[in-house]
Design brief:
alpha+beta, four-stranded antiparallel sheet, 20-stranded antiparallel sheet, single chain
């Protein structure tokens, strides 16, 4: 299954679109593809191809398995690269539908490197490329050498990306050595027939989101790079394998599925080629495998005579046939048994080798005539017990079947029900027969049945590995760093049930299917990175801010202590404030941080020291957080709602003369700053249903609207819906009865009732589904409900207990959000996907609002939350 990690690392291609976005229109014809593919070094084992279009990224976003199999570091790289570089309308406009190629290379003994390539319609000058790259926000660009290579660095990633732009081609890699080899015209590149296959299949498999191409000649060395020691057992079947495979991905939410054709080089000496002339055979022997099966490899032979003739040709190429024929002749001379005439015709059309969780290796053979075969074998065997015998001569079954039987040199065997079981110990056969008699079969287990129902019933070669039962083999076969991935629940690989790979002969090629299914409901416990003991329980949502090239986490406890904590969980500083922080903390461009309590405004440096002139006293107490008009200290203004007053300040703490306004009643939520048309607005709403639209520049009142028919009051948030013109824009809120109110910037108030909610409900307006309009979100003591703009339900979720909860939102990309729910009264926090499902790993035992996002320059996401005992915990997601 480690190969799945490599296969699925295709998503790392996100970075390549840096060039696509900024330089030239792309062409997807085969000539352009050929030009790109000719840069790929010859040691490439795998080449992945997909089209840059919205459907692919929809799959990436919704397909949980990609994140699970590629690992947390690469998943974080993708997330960061995409958020910085790809979330731009220009990408879709320029690069939509174009073909991207990623190749996999092994430059070092214990690592895999990746090369990304795409064609451009025209050449780009180095100076133009450098200038444009340097203007990408969040990216540091440094030219390297004279070969149009640039080093790109993102602050959220630990390693740089190197990119070459020239001659209508964009090539990139995280490995400068690999990129250098690709650019060296004297280094060997992938052969022309491989390029021809990739071109052909990439154009043909338009319905596949991902195409995978395999150079079988490099496969053995590639796979062995993950293994301990030399190839043995079934791994030896890859020796001498040459040819290519072209596989397309089929989308299934709980499985990885690829299918296509494998075309071997028949001139090479490889065992699998002996099955090319066979027709697929129904796989029946797997039905009698024991429940402790770790893996099996089954073979179907439709014509044993043709198979054995091809097998003898294979032995000839290996220069083994004379020795084996000498053994056959010796058996005939010494025991009067002609294997070719007395033994092989009695063998059936299927055989299977398998390994148990305990490490025992066995084989099962289907027979045409069990009693007659047993009589023949007794001529060359000795009795080990009443039912078990042992072959007296070596390699009898190796001569009959070939490589899979090589481990069984002089095996023990037992014949039963027209079948035979082989093993290298008498005890292994006894244990198998006990399971057989008790009908303790693998196919009776629910997990295997679910896996097997999506696997073809007939094939010529079929491999299966069960994840948990294979833990012993994984530990002994894989290098420790790779074996650990299957044990570590964080990696996601432990939640795969099994892997199946099938080959079915179709004249000159094998139809190939790869399938691995996944337990999407498996509970995942997040790894705790660190804990910090505060003086009391958490009282506010943790927030993360910049401090030079580092991040600091700021949070307040419920005895008013404000903490600054490093990304390693160490206290940087702490101070006790005179009260609770209202609303959020805000960071300006100069890294100073603004916030307010009920009666003061603070502006501090990341080291905790106060900016000159702060704190500033507020003349009237407030329960709301401040509103900022921007993050530039020279231009931004501070506005705050204090009971029925609107107050304004500069970022130096000086009061704004035009901003000491009295409204008719208490303001019910934070002030809203927004721009509609060419006008900047400060908008306020009162608890009695009056709404005021002020020009932020001079404080003049532009519009006032009142809800005169309301008998309840207003307490929820106030959300802007901005269009190109102010007259087409409006604000959204609810009253305490849950009635939805839309307040026009230039007209009256409209009302809509879409349910019954308790008076303490929380209302939100965010784009959850990623469509054209945000959704209406209601959270009350009963549960969470989300509605479309036409008032139809998106989803609802009912909580088991009835307590007051908080509503939070975390950005999934630039256009949509995830809903989070927390409480200071119970010990569970929730995260929901856009279909209303509780995200895997949630709910988590924690109290109060929480943070989810980046906390250090590794690109990974973390969860920071409080516990009832006053600890602050950081979990790696």
């Amino acid at each position: 299954m480690k190969k799945l990690i490599i296969f699925s690392s295709v998503l790392l291609v996100a970075i390549i679109f840096i060039a696509v976005k900024y330089f030239a229109e792309l062409t997807g014809n085969s000539n352009s593809n050929t030009k790109v593919l000719k840069y790929i070094p010859s040691d490439a084992t795998l080449v992945v191809n997909f089209s840059n279009d919205e459907s692919f990224y929809d799959i990436v976003e919704d397909y949980e398995l990609f994140g699970e199999v590629i690992g947390e570091r690469r998943s974080a790289e993708i997330s960061q690269l995409k958020s910085v570089l790809l979330n731009d309308p220009l990408v879709a406009e320029i690069s939509s539908g174009e073909k991207v190629f990623i190749s996999f290379h092994q430059l070092k003994a214990d690592s895999i490197d990746y090369l990304f390539a795409i064609g451009t319609g025209s050449s780009v000058k180095k100076d133009d490329a450098e200038l444009t790259l340097k203007n990408i926000e969040g990216v540091k660009c440094t030219p390297i050498g004279e070969n149009s290579v640039f080093k790109l660095e993102l602050s959220t990633l630990k390693r740089p990306f190197f990119i070459h732009i020239d001659k209508g081609v964009v090539i990139g890699s995280f490995s400068l050595d690999l990129l250098t080899i690709a650019l060296n015209e004297k280094s060997d590149k992938i052969p022309d027939d491989f390029i021809e296959l990739i071109n052909k299949e990439a154009d043909k498999n338009l319905n596949s989101p991902v195409n995978l191409f395999v150079n079988a000649g490099n496969l053995s060395r590639f796979v062995m790079s993950f293994m301990n020691g030399r190839a043995n057992g079934n791994m030896q079947l890859l020796n001498g394998l040459k040819g290519y495979a072209a596989l397309g991905m089929n989308f299934k939410s709980d499985a990885l599925m690829f299918n296509g054709n494998s075309t071997p080089d028949t001139s090479s000496s490889n065992y699998l080629n002996t099955f090319l002339k066979q027709r697929p055979v129904q796989n029946q022997l797997k039905g009698i495998l024991p429940q402790n099966t770790a893996n099996f490899l089954t073979f179907g032979i439709s014509n044993f005579k043709i198979f054995h003739a091809d097998l003898r040709n294979y032995f000839t190429k290996k220069k083994e046939l004379p020795r084996l024929q000498a053994q056959v002749k010796a058996i005939m001379t010494e025991r009067s048994l002609n294997i070719d005439h007395d033994l092989i015709p009695k063998l059936g059309n299927e055989f299977l080798v398998f390994e148990t969780a305990e490490g025992e290796k066995l084989a099962l053979l289907k027979l045409n005539n069990g009693p007659a075969l047993e009589a023949s074998l007794q001529q060359v065997s000795g009795k080990a017990s009443e039912f078990i015998s042992r072959i007296d001569y070596s390699n009898v079954f190796y001569y009959c079947y070939g490589d899979p039987m090589k481990p069984f040199v002089r095996p023990y065997f037992q014949i039963f029900d027209n079948m035979m079981v082989l093993a290298n110990s008498q005890g292994a056969i006894t244990r198998y027969m006990d399971s057989y008699k008790a009908s303790r079969f693998l196919n009776k287990l629910k997990d295997f049945k679910e896996h097997d129902q999506l696997v073809a019933t007939s094939s010529n070669i079929s491999f299966f590995a069960e994840n948990k039962n294979s833990s012993r083999q994984i530990r002994s076969t894989l290098k420790s760093r790779y074996a650990a991935l299957f044990k570590d629940e964080e990696s996601g690989l432990s939640n795969f049930y099994g892997l199946s790979v099938q080959w079915s002969s179709a004249s000159k090629h094998f139809q190939t299917n790869v399938f691995a299914n996944y337990n999407t409901l498996a509970k995942r416990d997040f790894k705790k990175e660190w804990s910090y003991k505060m003086n009391a329980r958490i009282a506010s949502a943790p927030q993360v801010f910049r401090s030079g090239d580092q991040h600091i986490i700021m949070v307040q406890d419920n005895v008013y202590n404000l903490y600054a904590i490093s990304d390693e969980g160490k206290r940087i500083w702490a101070t006790q404030l005179p009260g609770t922080i209202r609303g959020k903390l805000h960071q300006l461009k100069d890294e100073t941080i603004l916030f307010n309590t009920e009666d003061r405004i603070y502006r501090i440096h990341p080291d905790g020291s106060a900016v000159s002139g702060f704190p500033v006293s507020i003349p009237q107490k407030t329960v709301h957080g401040l509103t900022l008009t921007g993050n530039d200290p020279a231009q931004a203004k501070i506005y705050i709602a204090a009971q029925n007053k609107i107050l304004g300040y500069t970022t130096e703490g000086k009061a704004l003369e035009a901003w000491d306004k009295n409204l008719p009643s208490r303001i019910f939520t934070e002030l809203v700053y927004t721009e509609a048309g060419e006008t900047p607005y400060i908008i306020a709403g009162t608890r009695t249903g009056e709404f005021f639209f002020f020009d932020e520049r001079d404080g003049s009142l532009l519009h006032q609207a009142s809800e005169k028919n309301v008998v309840t009051d207003f307490r929820s948030g106030l959300f802007p819906v901005i269009k190109e013109r102010a007259e087409d824009s409006w604000m959204v809120t609810t009253d305490t009865a849950g009635v939805l109110h839309e307040i026009s910037f230039t007209d009256s108030v409209s009302r809509t009732s879409i349910g019954v909610w308790d008076e303490n409900h929380v209302f939100g307006y965010k784009n959850i589904t990623g469509d054209s309009y945000p959704e209406y979100i209601y959270l009350d003591n009963k549960g969470l409900s989300v509605f479309n703009r036409d008032n139809t339900s998106v989803f609802s979720y009912e909580f088991e207990d009835s307590v007051k909860r908080n509503l939070q939102f975390f950005s999934t990309d630039k256009s949509s959000w995830s809903i989070a729910v927390s409480s200071y009264q119970n010990n569970e926090i929730y995260l929901f996907d856009n279909e209303g499902n509780v995200s895997r790993g949630f709910p988590i035992k924690a109290v109060g609002e929480f943070y989810m996002g980046v906390i250090r320059n590794d690109g990974l996401r973390y969860l920071i939350c409080g516990s009832p005992d006053g600890n602050l915990h950081a979990y790696k997601l």
